[in-house]
From TrEMBL:
It is a multi-pass membrane protein. It is found in: Cell junction, Tight junction; Cell membrane. It comes from Oreotrochilus melanogaster. Keywords: Cell junction, Cell membrane, Membrane, Tight junction, Transmembrane, Transmembrane helix. Belongs to the claudin family. It comes from the Eukaryota. The gene is Cldn19_0. The chain crosses the membrane at residues 12-33, 45-70, 90-113. GO terms for cellular component: bicellular tight junction; plasma membrane. Signal peptide: none annotated. One of its GO terms (molecular function) is structural molecule activity. This is CLD19 protein.
Amino acid sequence: LTVHIQTSRALMVISLLLGFFGIIVSVVGMKCTKVGEEDPVTKSRIAVAGGILFVLCGLCTLAAVSLYATQVTYEFFRESTVPINARYEFGSALFIGWGAASLTMLGGALLCCSCPTKDRQGHQYYQQSQPPTAREYV
């Protein structure tokens, strides 16, 4: 295979691995899971790490799809003996790839927004216990 296809394939494999590890790290960083630390600040930092992995995953996908689209465009406008109706054109897979990359980066950015601010760091969140009620026995 040509170099640009091998490069696109490698970027997509890296993107899949980053997305897989992003899912694992994000699930551990969710506040509703009991995995890992109980500290909300630590959980938020783990969720931000998952968001960063998702943003990197989206960037790798965007680079791979755009590299292939650039090559298709170059081949289409290059002077060749191949007739115009037999040349490659943009297919739906390229647009799906661009959409997936943008949604993955958007999701990672939203996950990165869960980073604790300076005033919230160090505060512990405790559930208030209910005061005992007096019951009368008959």
